[in-house]
Amino acid sequence: YLHQVAEKIDALGQFVMKTRRTLKGHGNKVLCMDWCRDKRRIVSSSQDGKVIVWDAYTTNKEHAVTMPCTWVMACAYAPSGCAVACGGLDNKCSVYPLSLDKNENLAAKKKSVAMHTNYLSSCSFTNSDMQILTSSGDGTCALWDVESGQLLQSFHGHSADVLSLDLAPSETGNTFVSGGCDKKANVWDMRSGQNVQSFETHESDINNVKYYPSGDAFATGSDDATCRLYDLRADREVAIYSKDSIIFGASSVDFSLSGRLLFAGYNDYTINVWDVLKGTRVAILFGHENRVSTVRVSPDGTAFCSGSWDNTLRIWA
Question: Keywords in UniProt for this one (predicted)?
Answer without folding.
Answer: Repeat, Transducer, WD repeat
